[in-house]
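dumping this here before i forget
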Amino acid sequence: MWWRSLIIALAVLTAGCQVRPLYLDTAATGGAVSPTEDLRAIAIDQPRDRVQQVLRNELLFLFNGQGGGNTSDKYRLRILSTFSTNDLAVELEEDLPAAVLVTLAVTFILSERETDETLLTGTSTSTASYDFSSQRFANVRAERNALDRAATSNAEMINARIAAYFAARRGS
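structure:
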């Protein structure tokens, strides 16, 4: 019967937790808790390179949904990114890599547009790999595709962190 005591202890410990869906409907709570309106009010700075353009496009789609426009420019999101490549395996006879790992690190800063007060900062890192080929153009294209995959992954992580920030802010 010790398991009953364990269940009761766990129930008491988790009684203060407020677990709820991130995009909670307002009808269920009686108030606006969903971060959708805040996400649509984010203006993202112009990209400096192709990788930031992919990241920005993904974030715009995630923030605004399927073609929904920006309601206002209440918030500003700045993005800084760097990437590096590392050889994963090297073929001994040819001294060429068999696979390459691309790492994309993104730093983001969310601030209010009017006051320029920083609301949230963070970093996100993701990796993608590609097979190295003897063809030069194939390697260039494969690296570009790996960077695109890493940028998409980073955009999803950044979107989730910003949405959680706004949901927690609205919930309190």
